[in-house]
Amino acid sequence: MIDTIEQRSVTSYLVSGTVFSAVFGGSMSYDRYQKGEISGSDALLETSRLAVQGGIAASSAVWCANALGQRDYLGAMLGVGAGFLGVYAAQKAAEKIERTIKKKEENDGE
């Protein structure tokens, strides 16, 4: 049995995972921006996407750990599945936002 000691708050890990990922992703994006590899708006979009995905991943990991601690294997699988789905949905949403911004920038340039 995996001893998780006590239930952890999924919501608190959503917040802390989001903040952690924003700091980590932001530093990586800023480095790429400084090197001229991406624009400022792309760095912001990338940081936002990574922050949301990190929060989702952290909260689903806690959901899974809580479920395993209670020997709720179906709940653990649901936590992992929700994490995968959430990260994937965030990726697709970010791609759509990026396409919309690029399209607007192209239209403004005409």
Give a description of the structure.
The protein has about 110 residues and is an all-alpha fold. It has one domain (about 10-105). Helices cover about 85% and strands about 0% of the residues. It has three helices and no strands. The model has no long low-confidence stretch (mean pLDDT about 90).
Write the layout of secondary structure elements.
Blueprint: H1 10-34, H2 40-69, H3 73-109
Helix pairs in contact: 1-2, 2-3
Distance between the first and last residues' Cα: 63 Å
Low-confidence stretches: none
Shape: elongated
Q: Care to count the β-strands?
A: 0
Percent of residues in beta strands? under 5%
The tally of helices reads: 3
Structural class determined from secondary elements: mainly alpha
User: H/E order of the elements?
Assistant: HHH
- On the 0 to 100 scale, the average pLDDT is 89
Q: How many structural domains does the protein architecture include? A: 1
Instruction: Please estimate the helix content.
Output: over 70%
What Rg is obtained from the alpha carbons, in whole angstroms?
A: 17 Å
How is the biggest beta sheet arranged? none
